Amino acid sequence: MRPMIWSGLLIFLVDQITKYIVVFALDLQGRGSIDVLPPLLNFRMAWNRGVNFGLFSNDAELMRWVLIGVAVAISVWVAVWVLRDKAGRLGLISAGILIGGAMGNVVDRLIYGAVADFLNMSCCGIENPFAFNVADVAIFVGAAGLILFTGRKKAE
Length: 156
Description:
Elements: H1 2-25, H2 28-31, E1 33-37, E2 41-48, H3 61-84, H4 89-112, E3 115-120, H5 134-149
Antiparallel strand pairs: 1-2, 2-3
């Protein structure tokens, strides 16, 4: 259980700290964009009221609370699943990474009403119009880790 808690806490803190530094300390919300290593890495401010890439976004207050509820429910389900399944260390770490990312985005929705996205990456003449954040990366990595490192029962 400890690997899940510590990895989740680490991801949550990194996500919230990076959002605070970029969005508020560097005033990305006021500036709109900051070129870091163009075109590979740029900061582009986006307040995401929906799911990935703004899907299901609208200004309805109900959707905000639905998305918070879904994220919390999935996080609880993942934690119960890996603990009940007696997942190994990598499975627990993967669960923590996913949960930490989900909780980072939940806190954004609670405080700001939307998720603060700011990372934008483009390459090779293809301009990516979407922004994301550390929590989004963590959710993806955690889900991939759960696929790779859980569900393997030993033959009895």
